[in-house]
Amino acid sequence: MAADETPDDQYRTGILELIGILAYGEVSACERLAEDAAMSPDLETKAEILAMMAAEWDHFEKLRDRLVEMKQADPYPFIDSFADIFDRFHRQTTPSDWLEGLVKAYVGDGLAADFYREIAAYLDPETRELVLETLSGTGHSEFVVDAVCGAIERDPRVGGRLALWGRRLMGEALSQAQMVVAERDALSAVLVGGMDYPGMDLAGIGRMFTRLTEAHAARMDRLGLSA
C-alpha cells in the first residue's frame, strides 16, 4: 500500500482490478470461442459456439460500462493491462481439437467463474450483482455436455484423453488463480476485507480452494470424465 493510500482506497482499486480482469476475460473468451467455432465439425455446432461468444460479449459491455461509471474514463487501456494473466493461461492450455476447446470453455471458464464468484461474496452489493450477472451461464452448457458425452459414446478412448486434459486445466487454473492473488495487492485486499465488508483469513482461503476443487470434480462428472 502506498504511504498516502488508505485501506478504503486500496479496496476500491481492488474492485476496479476485479472488474478489469473479468472484462478482459470476456474478450479472451470471445477470441477463444471464435477459434473453437472455426474448428467445429458442422454448422449446428458452429452456431452454438457463436451464440456462446455473443453472450460473452454482452457481459464484456456491461463490465466496460461499469468501469466508466466508476470514473475509469478510458477503460480499454485499463482492461488491456490484464492481458498477461490470460495469455499465460492460454499458452499452457492450447486445445488440439474442437473437443478439447469445448472442455476448456466449459471446465476452464467454470473454474474461473467459481473463483470470482467466491470473491464476489466480499464486494459491495452493486458490484456483487454485476459480477454475479456476468458470471452467469450463457445457457449453452447442455450443448457442451451433450457434445462431449456423445463423442465419448462414439469412441470411448476419447474419454481418457479428455479426462487428462481436464486435470491439466484444473492445475493450470488453480496456479493462475493463486498467482493473480499474489501479484495483485489491491485484489488481495478485497479478499481480506475493506470498508464495511469483511474478508477471509488464510484458513478461509484454503477452504475456498477446496470448494473450487470440488466444483471442478462435479463439472467433470457431468461430462462423463474423471477429475
Protein model, in words:
- By secondary structure, the protein is mainly alpha-helical.
- 78% of the residues lie in helices and 2% in strands.
- The protein has helices spanning 7-38, 43-69, 75-80, 83-92, 98-120, 125-134, 141-154, 157-183, 185-192, 202-222, and strands spanning 193-194, 197-198.
- A two-stranded antiparallel sheet has the order 1-2.
- Helix 2 runs antiparallel to helix 6 (125-134) and helix 5 (98-120) packs antiparallel against helix 10 (202-222).
- It is globular, with a radius of gyration of 18 Å.
- 37% of the residues are buried.
- The mean pLDDT is 83.
* Tally of domains: 1
What is the name of the CATH superfamily?
Ferritin, core subunit, four-helix bundle
Quantity of strands, as a count: 2
Overall mean pLDDT: 83
Question: Poorly predicted ranges (pLDDT <50, ≥5 residues)?
Answer: none
Short précis:
The chain has 227 residues and is an all-alpha fold. The protein is 78% helix and 2% strand.
What is the fold's blueprint, element by element?
Elements: H1 7-38, H2 43-69, H3 75-80, H4 83-92, H5 98-120, H6 125-134, H7 141-154, H8 157-183, H9 185-192, E1 193-194, E2 197-198, H10 202-222
Antiparallel strand pairs: 1-2
Descriptive tags:
mainly alpha, Ferritin, 10 helices, 2 strands, about 0% strand
